Amino acid sequence: MNLIVGLGNPEEKYKNNRHNIGFMVIDSLLDDLSCTHINKQNFQGDLYKYANTLLLKPHTFMNLSGQSVRAVSDYFKPENIVVIHDDLDIPFGAMRFKHGGGNGGHNGLKSIDEHIGRDYFRVRVGIGKPSDKSKVVSHVLSDFSKEQKENLDKIIENAKKASVALLTQELNEVSQKFTTKPTKEVL
Fold this sequence. Notes:
Layout: E1 2-6, H1 21-32, E2 36-38, E3 45-50, E4 53-58, H2 65-76, E5 80-87, E6 95-99, H3 107-116, E7 121-126, H4 136-140, H5 146-165, H6 171-178
Parallel strand pairs: 1-4, 1-5, 5-7
Antiparallel strand pairs: 2-3, 3-4, 6-7
């Protein structure tokens, strides 16, 4: 069994926020696949199964994502875990991949690290960051700009393919195929 986790915040008002790019990728996977919904309150999220892969959108809000990931991991004992998340340190449109390592100050990753450790793959989707550090919170909790939305489908598609590839291919191979450069930087 494998687990792909998309990070985000569950309320409707956050649906199109930059911080919810992980949810957007999971939603796109759900549109493509014929999945079975697994309804168990202990998992603290929306959990779906397709073949030998689970797709998770935690309902715990970003800062507590590890609770949901831990509950699902304890129950299913996945061989591989892939976490899709926004990354301020990467320009908008760029994508990077990583196994383990630091959390870069990302509260969702901090929570996951605290609950299951760092032995998981990461799909890091660049959202860019504002030049004024005091605007970071408002940046991640705001929607993509009109210009950014024009590239969003392509970015989500790439993240989706890379997430699935990480389950069967080596990290270096996935990085070579799916690492992308930034699109026109527009904040």
